[in-house]
Amino acid sequence: MHVAEGRANGLAYTYDLLDLDHHKGVPLADLIADAEARGFGGLNITHPCKQEVIQHLDSLSPEAEALGAVNTVVLQDGKRHGNNTDWWGFAESFRRGLPDADLTSVVQLGAGGAGAATAFAILRSGARSLTIFDPDQNRAANLAETMGRHFPDATVEAGENLEQTIAGATGLIHATPTGMEKYPGLPLPAEFLHPHLWVAEIVYFPLNTELLVTARHRGCRTLDGGGMAVFQAVKAFELFTGIVPDAGRVQRHFAELTQGAQQPAAAGGIAS
After folding, report:
1. Residue 205 to residues 177, 178, 210, 261, 263: CA-CA distances in angstroms?
2. For residue 260, what pLDDT band results from cuts at 50, 70 and 90?
3. How many whole angstroms separate alpha carbon 8 and alpha carbon 2?
4. Which helix (H) or strand (E) holds 223?
5. Which helix (H) or strand (E) holds 91?
């Protein structure tokens, strides 16, 4: 997406993959320093480095600081500036894909870096109640406490009984890696899903995760992770280049890239 949009804007744009599987044992600090040495202008940060990267940065945008997670780093004038475009990417995708979704009571699975972004986005979008579940109860509680400070008019809490909470919920956000090729399966029992629930996914390779397929079979309205992938890239491109990209063109290119494709999600990227 970045390369195609760069070319469309007359840029000699390079975007390389830094697959963590191929750099096992290499400290994150060394990977960032290597990108700087090679002259790259920025990095996209994905799971599982969105929180760890913060300690290696010089500054954070207000959103990144609020979320405690970074997915876009701009390398400029010898400084590393951390940003978060995930939250806006999810919010914009949600606005377009589920425009009339009931935000009365939302459940979220996952309290990591991506979960911080989706929680911020759905509360910014008007959710009145958000209950967060994570295998690490402390992490869920910490995220709920942080979001509660930023959105005092909403009810935000860490959940205890997933089945009971989902039974009364109007929406479900899935913000864990489950569903990726490396982590196949469902993030919750299929029978917990009910027709009055909309389901929003963040995984985008594959686009049709087992969760989305199961949710549709059970009568749920769904939103795949492709929109979040596109719109976080749209905002990241603007940060990297100072040029506002053509979002529709980026969407069309993403559709071409994912037409029938079942690829693993990238572990990170660098752009210049």
Report:
1. 10, 11, 11, 8, 5
2. low
3. 10
4. strand 221-223
5. helix 86-97
Q: What is the structure's pLDDT at 121?
A: 98
Summarised one tens digit per residue, pLDDT across range 194-220 is: 999 999 999 998 999 999 999 999 999
What are the C-alpha distances in Å from 195 to residues 32, 86, 208, 219? 45, 28, 18, 4
pLDDT digits (tens, 9 = 90+) for 11-56: 999 999 998 888 888 999 999 999 999 999 999 998 789 989 999 9
Q: All domains of the chain, ordered by start, with CATH? A: 2-86+227-271 (3.40.50.10860), 97-226 (3.40.50.720)
What pLDDT is stored for residue 259 in this prediction?
Answer: 82
């997933």: which residue's tokens?
Answer: 162
In the sheet where 79-83 sits, what is the strand order? 15-17, 268-271, 42-45, 72-76, 79-83, 59-60
Rounded distance between C-alpha atoms, residue 196 and residue 69, angstroms:
31
Q: Which residues are catalytic?
A: 50
